[in-house]
Amino acid sequence: MRCAIYFIPPPDDPLTVAAAHWLGRNPYTGARVISAAEGLIPDHHAFLTAAPRRFGFHACLKAPFVLASHRQLTELENALDRFSQDADPISVPQTRVGIVDNCFGLLPAAPVQDLTELAGRLVVEFDSFRRPFAEHEPNGHSLRALSARQLSNLLIWGCPDVLDQFRFQMMLTGPVEREEREHVSAVLHRFFGQLIGLPILVDQIALFIEPEPLAPLLVHSVYQLRVRSHRRLA
């Protein structure tokens, strides 16, 4: 079984609802959602969103991993519950649509260091739940495209974009050719409208699971980050 630790807003959040209509699938229920996007024919829309649709709308905090053979899903659930009780909600003051690795996503308007630290904790503290890659096992990354630091991260943590390489991103498309980007950007701004630019409160983490190989990922359980109100500043 493959698992992933993601951030996703609550199911009734306007951003979650809009993203489900854009991607064509609700990751909470698995239901297909059909919604036209002005400026795109249906086939082009489906092609643009094929990759992020399978993973569901989210921001990756710990990339998909195969659960280690000596670990049980209930152990992971219990560990996430404990983790959530010792982590503060994090505010992203403003968002924007931008390009990451040739794909469009919803990004923070400015870096939020607390998000990098949250993701780093999850990567390190939950690594014992991840089955390490076998040398021959495909991992979905082109090694030639990775920097030395990213390659080291891949070998140690199972993902290149972690720790100081982490970027908070909620992907909306697969790769987009350079000549198409202006048009796709306009379509996204029109589709999401006033939701772009609004703040996001990262106040929960979700355990996603892949029920069977290459199946769409689904929300399995959600854990609220708790405000540690007892913490003193002086």
Q: What is this structure's SSE topology?
A:
Layout: E1 2-7, H1 14-23, H2 42-55, E2 59-66, H3 73-84, E3 90-92, E4 95-100, E5 103-108, H4 113-125, H5 148-157, E6 170-175, H6 181-192, E7 200-202, E8 204-210, E9 218-224
Antiparallel strand pairs: 1-2, 1-8, 3-7, 4-5, 5-6, 8-9
Describe the structure.
This protein is of the alpha+beta class and 234 residues long. The chain starts with a strand and ends in a 10-residue tail after the last strand. The longest helix has 14 residues, at 42-55. The strands form three sheets. It has a four-stranded antiparallel sheet with strand order 2-1-8-9, with helices on one face. A three-stranded antiparallel sheet has the order 4-5-6. Strand 8 (204-210) and strand 9 form a beta hairpin. It is globular and about 50 Å long. The protein is 30% helix and 22% strand.
Biggest β-sheet description: 4 strands, antiparallel
CATH top-level class: Alpha Beta
Shape: globular
Order of strands in the sheet with most strands:
2-1-8-9
Q: Note the total helix count.
A: 6
How would you describe this structure in keywords?
234 residues, alpha+beta, Cyclic Phosphodiesterase, Chain: A, four-stranded antiparallel beta sheet, 6 helices, 9 strands
